[in-house]
Amino acid sequence: MEDKILGLHHITAIAGDAQRNYDFYTKVLGLRMVKKTVNFDDPQTYHFYFGDKEGTPGSILTFFPWQQVKKGKNGVGMATEIGYSVPRGSLDFWQKRFEKHGVEFGNIREQFREQYLPFRDPDGLNLKLIVPKDEDKREAWETDEVKSEVALKGFHSVTLTLYNVGPTASILSDIFKYELEEKVGEFYRYKTNAVENAAIIDIHEDPTAERGINAGGTNHHIAFRVKDEETQMRFREKIVQKGLQITEKIDRDYFFSLYFREPGGVLFEIATDNPGFTRDESLEELGSSLKLPDQYEQARDRIERLLPELKH
Predict the structure, then answer these.
(1) Which residue of 16, 46, 185, 238 has the fewest CB atoms within a 10 Å radius of its CB?
(2) Sheet harboring 78-85: ordered strands across?
(3) Which residues, given as ranges, of the chain have pLDDT below 70?
């Protein structure tokens, strides 16, 4: 049986103020905080996971909020825009909501025959709400103000900005088995048929663009989804055979990870479904308390003193 990349697993970005980041994604956008933990390499920094009720792969946007982070710059070699799927007829609600909360947003536009509403989070991260051509049947997380008929369902797509589409496209098509679905101007849409949702990578080919600077308000990496570690390691071998450098398997507590930089410069991750976010919290309690990797548990008191206070 052919190994499958099951679309996007998660996307990780960099933020500034932790409270502002938490408030925007949970209170304005209405996502669930699925996990509150720390950066594996910098335990004085939070690592937030926002998603749906269960933290389903394909719904998870994660952040490293560094209080004093410098502002980054979108550009070549980066994931430059995140697309969330929303129900048909919901964009008017979101325009009014963004206006009410002072969110920077643009006009409703159309691309690949789909309507979308572009906006930015408080750190300047580029996002858009997209009404997909085919109905997205995923169950959204609801809040008192954001009900299911307008709520974010999970990822629709992510856009990469590159000088040249070719080398990156070869990774997507030859190894990940994505197919070129459509080209509109300098935008190329690649899609996998392995899953219904979070299945799209858009590439913006721009030979004149400047290189991006990875800091506040930009994406750090995008993670592709596989069902388990055995599948993951077979993909690792394919990437090695392609002549690319890739890490050993890393235990991230809620999934196992491999990292490599694709030829266009974007940091790609391959992440497993297992073991999932309920390994250390019940479904009802997800995101309610600070969870630390085992190696930092003995320093919990010190870490909790150093982390900014977070009001839920």
Answers:
(1) 185
(2) 109-111, 114-120, 126-130, 78-85, 154-162, 200-205, 187-191, 179-184
(3) 1
